[in-house]
Write a structure and sequence with these properties.
By secondary structure, the protein is of the alpha/beta class. It folds into two domains: 229 residues, P-loop containing nucleotide triphosphate hydrolases (Rossmann fold, 3-Layer(aba) Sandwich); 37 residues, no CATH class. Strands 2-3-1-4-5-6 form a six-stranded mixed sheet, sandwiched between helices. A three-stranded mixed sheet has the order 7-8-9, with helices on one face. This is GTPase IMAP family member 4. GO terms for molecular function: GTP binding.
């Protein structure tokens, strides 16, 4: 019965070499979950070995694209987590071990390294009619190379945590898995022996049979007991830790560069603001100086004008009578005119001569 669906994660890495794959596969099962009821497993093998379908069978629901929905096979490492028989189970599906050059990166997730409890090498069962055919021999040869690749990538210690998981158990058709191994020949038998004769069969066509899954989990428990825990050799752990350390150092350096850049920007802005304020103050000071000078000049001009006006002689305010303006051929008494003008305090003017007359 499918349990309540938990949070999903899709993890993908660009893999260009087996050494990179070794680091990625150990880093991808990486959430440090120390609960005794939690199991982590990595599905390894060639394309069309049934890795994605096996992952779906183990988790009891469609989590990985498989069959017709994934015509090109798995191209990126993907991790899914779910609850199986009351236990937290993490399953990682991987690309073809023999064809990592085609893997294209889509999204990388940095996780802490804790290591898988089991490395499951998937080998597809073939029908009895396919035995000894050219296609079967070619596939079996690739399966054996994939087994050798696991040992090459993870070292001999990895075999303590390795189990062969046969898929398409429905194609046994009355045969036991032991009979199939015997029919397959010496190459496969040697690989089974190398991993301590640990193997299991899944029938992906019958996902409702949860007994096959619980039996698989029990066998993984035995692997953990026999190996003393999850698989994570010291040299790999140190390599992963070194990668993490370098990544942290890189991030710290980037952070430091960013801080220095921001500090420099703030410094430049402060200096620009200071220069702007100084320029504004200088302009205001110069404008104030010009204004004061203009006021002083204007005041000085007014003062000089007033002084100049004070220095000029004052004109007489007495009325002037011009004798030339007297009517010609007129008879008048000159003495009376003098008396009149003198009594009035006027100035009597005859031609170009002026006489000031005042009364005594």
């Amino acid at each position: 019965m499918a349990a309540e669906k938990e949070a999903e994660e899709t993890v993908s890495y660009e893999l260009h070499s087996p050494s990179e794959l070794r680091i990625v596969l150990l880093g991808i099962i990486s959430q440090a979950l120390h609960s005794a009821s939690e199991l982590r497993m990595v599905l390894l093998g060639i394309s069309w070995a049934g890795k994605s379908a096996a992952g779906n069978t183990i988790l009891g629901r469609e989590e990985f694209r498989s069959g017709s929905s994934s015509s090109a096979g798995t191209k990126e490492c993907e991790k899914r987590t779910g609850e199986v028989s009351g236990r937290r189970v993490t399953v990682v599906d991987t690309p073809d071990l023999l064809d990592t050059a085609r893997v294209e990166i889509e999204r990388c997730v940095s996780l802490s390294a804790s290591g898988p409890h089991a490395l499951l090498l998937l080998i597809r069962v073939h029908s009895k009619e396919m035995i000894d055919s050219a296609a079967w021999k070619s596939t079996l040869k690739k399966d054996c190379k994939a087994f050798d690749k696991v040992q090459e990538l993870f070292g001999g210690k990895a075999l303590k945590n390795t189990m062969i998981l046969f898929t398409r158990g429905d194609l046994l058709r009355g045969r036991t898995i032991e009979q199939y191994i015997e029919e397959a020949g010496e190459e496969l038998q040697q690989r089974v022996e190398k991993c301590g004769n640990r193997y299991h069969v899944l029938n992906n066509k019958n996902r409702s049979d949860r007994t096959q899954v619980t039996q698989l989990l029990d066998k993984i428990d035995n692997i953990v007991k026999g190996s003393g825990g999850c698989y994570l050799p010291n040299e790999i752990y140190q390599e992963v830790e070194e990668r993490i350390r370098r990544k942290e150092q890189e991030l710290n350096e980037k952070h430091k560069e960013e801080l220095n850049r921001k500090e420099e920007e703030m410094k430049q802005k402060y200096e620009e603001e200071q220069r702007r304020r100084e320029e504004e103050m200088k302009q205001k000071y110069e404008e104030e100086q010009r204004r004061r000078e203009e006021e002083m000049m204007e005041k000085l001009r007014k003062q000089m004008k007033e002084e100049e006006l004070e220095k000029k002689p004052k004109k007489s305010k007495l009325p002037v009578t011009n004798c030339n303006e007297l009517p010609h051929n007129s008879k008048f008494d000159l003495n009376n005119l003098f008396e009149t003008q003198i009594s009035a305090g006027s100035i009597l003017s005859f031609g170009s001569y002026k006489y000031s007359c005042t009364q005594s």
